Amino acid sequence: MEINKIPTLKTICWKITDGYVIVDSARGHFILNDTSSIVWKCIDGRKTVADIIREIHVKHSEENTLAQIEEIVCEAITSYMENDLVLLCEDDDLDGWLQYE
Fold first, then answer.
1. pTM
2. Into how many domains does the chain fold?
């Protein structure tokens, strides 16, 4: 995965219930586990994958190495992309309308 790209949510329908993120998309409902929810909540359309990895590492460095967190984040974002929930793009690819697709 190119960790210098910016993940952007393709859906605006999601909520947090009992600590879990529930995503509603054209493909159905997805309930994310604790770890995947942490990654999901970091995606804001401005941070690169590398930024997200560093942010999570700062908060969870006692439990996981940087390499482990990178693997977790990349797996989660890849899964989101496979389910058409996230678009991975360059900084200059964003047009301001992406959240309304």
1. 0.76
2. 1
